[in-house]
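By convention, each integer encodes one residue's backbone shape. The lines below illustrate.
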Amino acid sequence: MELIMAASLASEHLGPVMVTGDLNDVAWSPTTQQFKKISGLFDPRIGRGFFSTYNALVPFFRMPIDHFFVSRHFQIRKITRLHKIGSDHFPIFTSICLAQEKK
């Protein structure tokens, strides 16, 4: 429910938008797909690899439940899953910049 509310807010904003965090939902779930459709944001992981972020403590039980969605205003430079740091989630390093608008 909250994710769909965030999608609606994002869709109303004309400027750069970023939604990120532990959403406790996998990228292929119907809720996440609905979020992307409503918000108009895209998942920069697509085409760059599979980034399982949870569970850093159990190697055979890993899923991508931490997300990073961005509007068309951003250019993705790099996405990397980092080594575990004591949490049950792996950290993700994402390098982005605002894209220059075409005139």
